[in-house]
Write a sequence for this structure.
């Protein structure tokens, strides 16, 4: 049983993009509510390699200084570590007219193309030279364009948006991704002097401004809905009563409805959610979808929960067909899961049993930690560096709630 209060930190998938956006204007940027995670450290190294300077003012505050002395060539070794390095593309092209970057790394969910990024930026006048290993692009004159994304890609929306801020004329992104982290980026860009209308909707209209209009700002990073979902899942499987401070119900409405269907009681209070779980979870079926649907990042948590729920549930993955690698690991804990194409059929068992498992990526790693809390005996999770990329002291926070979890290294 977990009891007490846990604080949700800022979102990885927002802060990394906000950091990329600091390339667009000279001056001193201050980001607050920054999660203390490995990906932020990697992004700091990347920005420094490009010519910026960065400094942690405290565990959750970051100073980024852009003196304008930027070389838009990103080193392979750093780009290979995080997917969000692709987010350098838009601001570097928009501000410096040139970019030379390796193909980004990050979690391996199978193929992760960038055709939508490229098509959008080409429509604005960029010229690409794509090879198997990297992306080179130039743009002597970026201009506004009408861009309809065939899929609401988070990364493509962000790159086109950041390039459009300084482009000549009006850019319209239709079928734009609507994740709260994109709203956060739009808000920071507007405070910097950009002109973006339609924030939070699927149609973003960006009227280009001159470089001298943009200035550095102080910005508070939006809270992390996936980390919030992780703490709720932990209470759901172990039982207990926890206040998840900083969890924002309006950013995770569909997920909260599904948690409620599974039997978790979640009550919005000022600045957070009270989560109470007393009974065995009930199975549900769910499918991942772009926001406001159930995020693919929540799926490993939900599959872990279904593993011990009463009845049978079906999980359908619509974003990354290869994102089922953690199922083998849950099976080592005794979960009864069968994969059929992009569906997983999960028959709930009474009890998971501790074993040694490997974290294949950030979210799956966190889901294994949650499963380990409720498995009998000892569960050892290896490859925890994946979890450290996106979670700010997951072990310490769960232990403070009464979870029996420690770090060995
Ligand atoms: N896609 C294309 N072409 C493109 C871009 C995307 O076909 O040019 C497809 C992808 O293959 C995928 C789908 O569109 O099937 C979604 O990709 P999207 O571009 O929306 O995702 P992303 O920007 O690469 C971000 C998060 C992921 C999260 C996804 C979906 C970051 C750094 N990453 O990735 O987060 O799963 O959106 O919500 O923001 C994580 O945090 O652990 C993580 C993997």
């Amino acid at each position: 049983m977990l009891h007490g209060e846990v604080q949700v930190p800022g979102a990885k998938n927002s802060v990394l993009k906000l950091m990329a956006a600091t390339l667009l204007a000279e001056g001193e940027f201050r980001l607050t509510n920054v999660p203390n995670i490995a990906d932020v450290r990697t992004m700091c190294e990347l920005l420094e390699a490009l010519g910026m300077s960065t400094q942690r003012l405290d565990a959750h505050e970051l100073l980024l200084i852009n003196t304008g002395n930027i070389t838009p060539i990103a080193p392979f070794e750093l780009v290979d570590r995080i997917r969000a390095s692709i987010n350098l593309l838009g601001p570097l092209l928009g501000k410096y007219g040139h970019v030379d970057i390796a193909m980004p790394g990050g979690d391996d969910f199978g193929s992760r193309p960038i055709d939508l990024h490229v098509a959008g930026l080409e429509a604005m006048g960029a010229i690409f030279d794509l090879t198997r290993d990297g992306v080179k692009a130039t743009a002597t004159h970026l201009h506004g364009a009408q861009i309809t994304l065939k899929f609401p890609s988070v990364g493509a929306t962000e790159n086109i948006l950041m390039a459009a801020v300084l482009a000549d004329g009006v850019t319209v992104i239709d079928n734009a991704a609507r994740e709260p982290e994109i709203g956060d980026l739009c808000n920071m860009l507007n405070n910097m002097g950009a002109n973006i209308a339609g924030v939070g909707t699927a149609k973003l209209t960006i009227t280009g401004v001159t470089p001298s209009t943009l200035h550095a700002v102080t910005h508070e990073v939006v809270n992390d809905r996936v980390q919030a979902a992780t703490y709720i899942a932990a209470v759901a499987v172990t039982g207990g009563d926890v206040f998840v401070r900083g969890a924002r119900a309006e950013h995770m409405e569909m997920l909260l409805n599904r948690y409620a269907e599974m039997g978790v009681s979640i009550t919005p209070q000022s600045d957070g959610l009270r989560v109470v779980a007393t009974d065995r979870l009930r199975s549900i079926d769910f499918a991942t979808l772009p926001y406001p649907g159930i995020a693919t990042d929540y799926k490993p948590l939900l599959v872990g929960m279904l593993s011990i729920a009463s009845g049978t549930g079906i999980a359908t993955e619509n974003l990354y067909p290869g994102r089922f690698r953690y199922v083998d690991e849950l099976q080592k804990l005794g979960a009864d899961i069968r994969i059929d194409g992009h569906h997983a059929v999960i028959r709930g068992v009474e009890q998971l049993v501790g074993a040694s498992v490997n974290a294949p990526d950030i979210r799956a790693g966190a889901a294994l930690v949650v499963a380990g809390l409720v498995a009998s005996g000892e569960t050892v999770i290896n490859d925890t560096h994946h979890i450290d990329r996106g979670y700010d002291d997951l072990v310490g926070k769960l232990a403070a709630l009464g979870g029996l979890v420690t770090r060995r290294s």
